[in-house]
Amino acid sequence: MTTPEARLKDLGIELAAPRGPAGAYRPVVIDHGLAWLSGQGPIDPEGNAIRGSVPDEVSMERAIEAARWTGVNALAMLRAEIGSLDRVERIVKITGYVCAAPGFTEHPKVIDGFSTLMVDVFGDAGRAARAAVGVATLPFGLVVEIDMVVRLEE
User: Fold this and answer.
1) Is the pLDDT of residue 60 over 70?
2) Per-residue model confidence as pLDDT tens digits over 85-95
């Protein structure tokens, strides 16, 4: 069986050092075997934030890509906290927020960019319970913000 760390390599994904928090909070809190990740946003490999609302300013395809980059950033944050993604037993819950123009209703398709990455890396253990919600604005004008809860191996 391939480990999550090996899957990252197979997918050609390199996790950069995570950015620090943007406020007075912890990026990851571990409590009773669960890692609670604070909301992450889409920063591409060049360090650019992906901003705007779907579909008026950001296309559906770009928003899905942004959700995937958010997943890469979340994995980097998690690995920095726990040492290795091989310690992940299961992704338990994902909550995704999409900055959406009025009338936009395809939030689940956008957040699939994140969810699909979790399945790619963790297999069926990456298939989590999930909410995908549309909002008028997000911090710093980001197109998506996603948080998650992860169960760790003991």
Assistant:
1) yes
2) 999 999 999 99
The predicted pLDDT at position 22 comes to 86
Task: Kindly tell me the number of DSSP H helices and DSSP E strands found in the chain.
Answer: 3, 5
Residue ranges per structural domain of the chain:
4-12+27-152
Alpha-carbon distance 100 to 57, whole Å? 9
At 128, is the secondary structure helix, strand, or coil? coil
Structure tokens at 83: 């040492």
CATH architecture for the domain at 4-12+27-152: 2-Layer Sandwich (3.30)
Single out the residue of 42, 146, 147, 53 nearest to residue 106, CA to CA. Answer: 53
pLDDT of residue 19: 84
Q: What is the largest CA-CA distance in the chain?
A: 45
Does the global pTM surpass 0.90? yes
The alpha carbon of 77 is separated from its chain's Cα centroid by a whole number of angstroms, namely 10
CA distance 62 to 130: 21
